[in-house]
């Protein structure tokens, strides 16, 4: 298996990206094609003492920044690491593409270069979020600020395939985010989406989920529009960070509390690990015709390695093929 | 000052409601008119040994339950504690009304019986939420699942008045929830709301706030539609509860970790107090012509006492009068 990576995307590119790639080669037995500025990639490999076995470098002199307007960047920066990498994926020169670069550009590039699955009007970003009872998948976590009911219904199908094939959940439970359990709750689009999902034989629909119950991880797939999904994703991150910071302050207060920390260190480490989004890699662009994965912009080597592991699991499980099959005979998804 | 209360609303009515009322009479020097089933109220006062000095009982035999359809309940249950209490408020027989009953019914009743301020199409629910740097006001936290830009702009004005007059914030900072800092972010309604708020001389607009930054409490007033607000409110509650539960597990793991807990007990108590929504009382129905406050459905005596304190502060600060003044010459709020 050959995973194409954007070696220039993200806050810590190219050094951490390449270190993560080298670790993925060793641990998962994949081959990696690293696309980026060749001189910079070589310099980073030498500076970090990275063993480049299994990594092929492909030169792409341009770079898309976080400030570039997404669609314009994809159209005009033809020699950027992201565009070259996506083109290689579209041409079958690799099995998946992973980037820690601009989410907007990656989404636009995936749609323009790799294309969508039939039945998908707009891809969604599916993010795995740590939950108390285990991680859950949130989609759309930010691609589409407004979603029609048919889109939400398609997200439910794609999310189920992902949780089953990548995360190994049997008969994954799907719920629709809403401000109450009754099927009449929410905006007209949510009421309609509820009806579509309830009638959808391809998913295991658990009804509406109230936001209070999301963090526990009681369901496997949490469906909502991208505006709401962005709120859930970012508020979860922000709140977990704030609370962990507050608890740290409690332990730093005095010599006595510092001693207490030594006594609970192991448990607190497990607790922080549970909250660590890096453990779960990146976000799959769901509805794109081949696996395109967005790693977190602040990815370090470990996070990027995990995003490659996720790409490998998507390929191993033929996730995109299974989504294509289930969506092809669901014409309403493109209504 | 005379605060009218719904003695039958909420999970712990009437006992905890009346205990909270008696504490409020003692601590804040207010008078309370308790509306509800007189026999049940008297029995609760006796059973709990509550000193009823300062509390006047008004008999209202009917009760609105959480299962009643809100508007129908208000129209048909004329002798319910909620309807009788709201009517007394409308007729000037008290200065504010506090209920821990059904949010939907209270909202419908406030609109139908107490009426709206000029310039307000639909009232919003304003909830004070604990933040790391201090509490902030979230509105709309659940009344209107869809909001037009003019409504969001009116919420900004009302929220500012509240934070200034009730919470004592000078020049309160207002922000619009959005999925990015740029003024072009979000749905068309949010883009327009941003423009209206930016041009509004009555508020101190700090631009968009990303959900990640909300828990810190960096701004005083957080404005969004009620669907998003419900997600923020309930996800914050659920996540805080889940994380506190996890930390508790860390401390319960062994004799060693239990010892650690003894060493940090004080700090953890302060931490939990910071997260305690009961500290901040209830939610003001913003845009109603007189102060109507929704206490949490699960209110205990302390939470209900604090909701009465909040009602007193609203009356003391003439919050509704100030809102009326600022909204009266803003015709766009009712566009």
Task: Please report which band the strand proportion of chain A falls in: under 5%, 5-15%, 15-25%, 25-35%, 35-45% or over 45%.
Answer: 15-25%
Largest interface: pair, residues per side: A-B, 51 and 51 residues
Binned, the helix content of chain A reads 40-55%
Low-confidence sequence ranges of chain A: none
Main structural class of chain A: alpha/beta
C-alpha geometry of chain A: globular
Strand order of the largest sheet of chain A: 3-2-1-4-11-10-5-6-9-7-8
Oligomer: homodimer
Number of helices of chain A: 11
Count of DSSP E strands of chain A?
11
Give the termini distance of chain A in whole angstroms.
Answer: 36 Å
Radius of gyration over C-alpha positions of chain A, nearest whole angstrom: 20 Å
Profile the largest sheet of chain A.
11 strands, mixed
Mean pLDDT of chain A: 92
């Amino acid at each position: 298996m050959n995973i194409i990576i954007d070696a220039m995307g993200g806050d810590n590119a190219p050094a951490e990206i390449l270190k993560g790639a080298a670790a993925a080669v060793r641990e998962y037995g994949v081959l990696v094609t690293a696309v980026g500025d060749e001189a910079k990639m070589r310099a980073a490999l030498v500076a970090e003492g990275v063993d480049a076995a299994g990594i092929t470098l492909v030169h792409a002199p341009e770079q898309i920044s976080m400030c570039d307007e997404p669609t314009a960047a994809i159209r005009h920066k033809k020699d950027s690491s992201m565009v070259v990498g996506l083109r290689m994926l579209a041409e079958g020169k690799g099995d998946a593409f992973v980037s820690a670069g601009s989410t907007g550009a990656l989404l636009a590039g995936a749609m323009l270069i790799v294309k969508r699955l039939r039945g998908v009007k707009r891809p969604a970003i599916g993010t795995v979020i740590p939950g108390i009872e285990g991680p859950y998948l949130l989609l759309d976590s930010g691609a589409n600020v407004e979603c029609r009911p048919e889109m939400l219904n398609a997200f439910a199908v794609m999310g189920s395939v992902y949780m089953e094939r990548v995360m190994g959940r049997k008969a994954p439970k799907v719920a629709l985010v809403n401000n109450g359990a009754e099927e009449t709750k929410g905006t007209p689009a949510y009421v309609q989406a509820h009806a579509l999902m309830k009638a959808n034989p391809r998913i295991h629909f658990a009804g509406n989920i109230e936001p209070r119950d999301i963090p526990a991880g009681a369901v496997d797939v949490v469906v909502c529009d991208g505006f709401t999904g962005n709120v859930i994703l970012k508020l979860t991150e922000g709140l977990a960070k704030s609370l962990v910071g507050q608890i740290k302050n409690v332990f730093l207060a005095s010599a006595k509390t510092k001693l207490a920390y030594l006594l609970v260190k192991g448990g607190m480490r497990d607790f922080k690990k549970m909250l660590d989004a890096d453990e779960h890699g990146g976000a799959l662009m769901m509805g794109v015709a081949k696996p395109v994965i967005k790693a977190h912009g602040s990815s370090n080597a470990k996070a990027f390695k995990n995003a490659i592991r996720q790409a490998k699991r998507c390929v191993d499980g033929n996730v995109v093929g299974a989504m294509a099959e289930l969506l092809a005979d669901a014409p309403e998804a493109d209504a």
